[in-house]
Amino acid sequence: MVAEAEVVFQQSLPVVLDIDGVTSAVVSPLSSPKLGIRRPTASVSGGLSTSPVQEEDFDSSIPVYVPTIRSGSYADIGPKRSMEDEHICVDDLSSQLGCLFELPKPSAFYAVFDGHGGSEAATYVKQNAIRLLFEDDNFPQTSEVNSVYVEEVKSSLRNAFLQADLALAEDCSISSSSGTTALAALISGRYVLLMVANAGDCRAVLCRKGKAIEMSHDHRPINIPERIRVEESGGVIEDGYLNGELSVTRALGDWDMKRPHGSNSPLISEPEIKQITLTEEDEFLVIGCDGIWDVLTSQEAVSVVKRGLNRHGDPARCARELVMEALRLNTFDNLTAVVVCFVTVDREGEAVVPLEKKRCCSLTPEAFRSLRNLLDG
Questions:
Q1: Contact 203, 293 (CB under 8 A)
Q2: pTM, full prediction
Q3: β-strand 282-288 against 203-208: which pairing, if any?
């Protein structure tokens, strides 16, 4: 672990957050031989959705919308010999961080980390992500969400990614060839701001009236802006891989592929940040590692989750169903899915959760006669 002097903070959190206590990963047993770590097949089924998020400024004129937030997650080792994914689910940040840390309500935090070259980098970032974000001096302590709050949170998210990257370089217990992609989603305030920071090829997809709205871009060599940036930084793309090794162009760690701190490098940890103000048209958010998106489009994933919510209303079951669908389609990687539901609250203050639909069944002649006799007395 990095010594306290190596990552300096002026403020300490009032409560130490037990990350393991607020995540709900379920990992399946070993299923098949190990595949390559740095050069997995980079096929994408059906391409990306045609509806990326339209970047918008914060708008306080939008009617106040305060949903009940609930989430579920599921993780599976897939066809690999080791599990290198990690994730975080915190539905109520205020209760986790303590009363001395002021946050807009509701506030929630979710993240997925897809490790490579071993699990060390992903595990370290999971254990330190919330500390790095909320101990940032510039993270706003306020109950109000406004344009100033939005810009300060963006700055803190960006700084948390960069600090995590530096910490991985300084920790001698973590191999320089170990790295992780990272995607974090922060939900906050009465106007329900959703902010997503991404470095790598994990993906966040918002469901708005059944339609997939992508909240992140995949940072891969096939992404034209990323390819241009890599080549302008002196990197090369060989067979679809950065410098012939990595299938992503942004990641935390991987210091054997990065230049010294402060130097321009083809592989960067700078996150791309997108934001949107949620409304009653927004149903849920899906966050997943690339093991999901290698075989499912954004719209296909949204459809799987929506069907599940209509049947049983359980986000954890939906996350499992999404992972199982990716396995059925022969994904080659570890799998992690997080489903975050925005539940409308009715006039009596009760959350409106879809009831599980009962399946129709046929009675045997004998059962029908028994039922008839019972009804006839």
A1: yes
A2: 0.80
A3: antiparallel
Q: Is the pLDDT of residue 357 over 70?
A: no
Domain extents in the chain? 19-212+272-357
Q: What are phi and psi of 225, to 5 degrees?
A: -60, -35
Residue 9 to residues 45, 158, 168, 169, Cα–Cα distance (Å): 44, 16, 17, 18
Using the predicted structure, report yes or no on whether residue 319 has a pLDDT greater than 90: yes
- pLDDT score of 350 more than 60: no
The closest alpha carbon to 136, from 153, 120, 156, 119, belongs to 156
DSSP assigned state of 52: B
- Looking up tokens 């939008």 gives 62
- Could you tell me the fold of the domain covering 19-212+272-357? Phosphatase 2c; domain 1 (3.60.40)
Which two three-digit tokens encode residue 167? 């910490």
